[in-house]
Amino acid sequence: MSSTSQKHKDFVAEPMGEKPVMALAGIGEVLGKRLEDKGFDKAYVVLGQFLVLKKDEELFRDWLKDTCSANVKQQGDCYGCLKEWCDAFL
Amino acid sequence: MASTQLTDEELFSELKRFGFTPGPVTENTRPVYLKKLKKLREEQQQRGSRAGKTRNSGAIHSSSGGGNTAGSRPASHDVTHLSSSRRPGRKSSVLGFSSDESDAETPLKRKGLNQSRRADRSPGFPQHPMIRPTTPSVATKSQYGATLNSNNSSPGPGRQRGVLLGWGVRARSSPEAEGRDYDESGDDDDNEGEKEKNSRSLNGCGASHLNTSKLAGDYSDSDEEEVGGPGVGDQQRERLEPNVRRSHTKAEFAYHVVGRGSQTGGAARQVNPPEGLNMVGNRREEGEGGEGKRRDSDTPGGLRSHTVSPRKTIYVSLAENHGGETGKNNHVDGEDGAYRSSRFAIGLRPRFSNYSSLSQTYRSNHSNHTAPNHSYSQAMLKQKLSVPEDELLQQFKREEVASSGSFSAHYLSMFLLTAACLFFLLLGLMYLRMRGSGSSEVDEVIKSHPFGSQFDELYNKTEKDLILKLLLNLHDHLAQVAGQYDCGDQQHLNRSLSMAEAATYLRAQNQEFDGFIETSLEWIIRTGQDVGIRLTGQVADDPLTDVSEISRLESSHPKMPFTCRFRRAFLTVISRVSLIAVVVGCVWSVVCYMRYRWRREEEETRQMYDMVERIIDVLRSHSDSCQENQDLQPYLPIPHVRDSLVQPQDRKKMKKIWERAEKFLAANESRIRKETQRIGGADFLVWRWIQPSLSCDKTMNSKVWQGKAFPLDRRNSPPNSLTPCLKIRNMFDPIMEVGENWDLAIHEAILEKCNDNDGIVHIAVDKNSREGCVYVKCLSAEHSGRAFKALHGSWFDGKLVTVKYLRLDRYHQRFPQAQGCSTPLKASSLHLNTTGTMNTMPRLHHRGAANSSGFS
């Protein structure tokens, strides 16, 4: 990705704390609702899943697609956002 | 699928076997890892099939349930074996055979070879068919056909030869299978899937398909683990078993073909699948001819069982199957149906589909299959023999054939629809026409005259006729006039005719009418029924009693030309429809507008609340900062608040919302008070926050000692104090410090902590250090040691304090003024000194009070 969205920048700028899952880049209202229904109500829960998948891009993308039917762009945005957050704070 | 039966551990180990280190397999990650496993297996299978890999994939195959892909994997193994045993010298024949369906010569030549190698091949045979289920089966068929053609002798020797041929063909087919690239396995899977679909669609007419499937189903039952088929043998033979069975099937077919003398012709034709329907017909004949020979099929099976002892049970079972199937066509069909469905339910393997097609073709001989079945089997044959592209084309053709039926159904429905529409249209036209011709009825009425029996009595026949004719004429004329008038013809200025006009007209028609005009009109008046002529007097709406009163005649059933009528009807309909549409449109637009307004209002309310919250936040923060900084006024002018919250470009838009927010605050917010203040000489309406701040966060920032983190012992502190100078780290964060004299607070804190230690002579806070360093000089090493013990490892203001010894000379270098210090510092004195200067810091006040109380 050449450029990142404002959402991405906002998310990566600080520890996520209790941010909702919709604060993740690529996750809007619809996807956020779907994730919440599956139990991923906070961004840190999705982070947990990301880490459980060992930060593997392909697996995480597949998981996103299965869980909330994210399209390729959304998957990429979310993955990039979490990866950068991990690089900065983990 | 077997993959769903994998436990987490199994999945984990499977993934690891591929060299991929998976994370934990939880309920969330399970599907992802399953997909990954499948993908890895496919990749490996592709790689394996291309290079003729070892049995590794077989193991995976056994553990997974990848359906088609899994099915083709064992084929790869088999191929490997085959290649090892049979490669040399076979390729040419195989290649030749595979590409040329009509090559009937090759099998003959190969017969001898096959015979000699039969023994060798038997163990390996099962594997052949496996590799290339489609091609071998097809090849086998054609081979059989060719050989049978040439060997059209008694069933006995024919059978024997058939056996040999069968074996030979199989051998041939296996190399052929070898030669074929295994990449086609994927295509086969697709092809078979489609074939199966097609045959499924034809199930209504294709019982033979079902027959085939049954056999295949049996095989698949025993072959596939997930089905948990009948205990065919040990695990090792599992892979072989299906091969064996398939070979048996083929042999069976061969035998069947052999058994039927009349079948040879058909078999020959089988060699040339492209002939398609021809063969269909032939096969049918064969089938009928072979009915009587069905029982013979059992013996071939028996024969087979002799030849291949290890597989006796299988052969027997096969024979039994065949025997059972040969019972009745219906029965066979029923079985087929069951088999087919079971097979599909299991998860098709390419082999099975191939076998099914094979058996299908042969079964069709038994049962009354319809033409499409034959063509389909033919198409399947064709597919197997040709290259994948051709296979696909064949499939498309088949699909077209299949879809033609559906198309006709589609067209039928469309046709019905249009027919219905036309019908209604005609009905409407008829109705219109009827309206126009309604007058004829009236004419009828007149003819049968509604005038009652009196009329009949009064006049004789001719007169009656005259009168009636007169009336008829009159009626028609009036109808015409009325019609023309209605249609907009300006010929007649009036819809009705005056008496004189009517009289002249009638006279013009017939001279004899003259006398009867009045009588007929009288009769019209008398009858009272509507005869289509309306008589009006001088004064409208007056009931007429006498002929003399009649002034105008009008038709109540105007006769209009059809187009005019249609036009009028059309216009009426259109106008009515448009009226309704307009009304509906109005209602709908009103509803939409209401909804829009309602939504707008909601939006505005939400914005208003948002604004209120922001105002409250602003005021609260302002009041907080006021508490800290007493220079600020505790109130804020309202316009200033607005201008700080609302962007300039939004001000006009938000004006309404702002006013609503203001009103809301005035009415509902108790913590904000509106008052008038004079700021800079002008009167302003201001808001004052009147809730005392909770300032809970202030206590967190207070500089207090908060206990020790770890007990000091020999491990984490030097055994004895080395120098009288200490460097204390992490006592503060220079960025976070606010206020003027926080360093003095630090001084005091240290002194307070070491209040029992009277030896501290100098304290220096390095304001700019990032580490929060404080330098302390004591009277002697002993004092510094005591200070060290008191300070090191303590929590201060949420930070863990660490202490180091410093060299005295360095300390003096840094702080030359410390050289002269020798009086111990005291906390209280410090506090007292700084009390005046620290008025602005309420916490220090409190602390000071506590300190003083504690100190003294």
Keywords for this structure?
heterodimer, A: mainly alpha, 5 helices, B: 856 residues, alpha+beta, four-stranded antiparallel beta sheet, three-stranded antiparallel beta sheet
Could you write a compact summary of the structure shown?
The complex is a heterodimer of chains A (about 90) and B (about 850). Chain A has about 90 residues and is an all-alpha fold.
Kindly describe this structure.
The complex is a heterodimer of chains A (90) and B (856). Chain A has 90 residues and is mainly alpha-helical. Chain A has helices spanning 6-12, 29-37, 43-52, 57-68, 72-89. In chain A, helix 1 (6-12) runs parallel beside helix 5 (72-89) and helix 4 packs across helix 5. Chain A is globular. The two termini of chain A are 22 Å apart. Chain B is built from 34 helices and 13 strands. The longest helix of chain B has 67 residues, at 562-628. The model of chain B is unreliable at 56-367 and 830-856 (pLDDT under 50).
Mean pLDDT of chain B: 65
Low-confidence stretches of chain B: 56-367, 830-856
How many distinct beta strands of chain B? 13
Strand content of chain B: 5-15%
Radius of gyration from the alpha-carbon trace of chain A, in angstroms: 11 Å
CA-CA gap between termini of chain A? 22 Å
Q: Strand portion of chain A, in percent? A: under 5%
Shape of chain A: globular
The level of helicity of chain B is 55-70%
Greatest contact between two chains: A-B, 11 and 12 residues
User: Structural class of the helix and strand makeup of chain B?
Assistant: alpha+beta
Protein name (chain B): Inner nuclear membrane protein Man1
Pfam families (chain B): LEM (PF03020), MSC (PF09402)
Subunit structure (chain B): Interacts with SMAD1, SMAD2, SMAD3 and SMAD5. Binds to both phosphorylated and unphosphorylated R-SMADS.
Subcellular location (chain B): Nucleus inner membrane
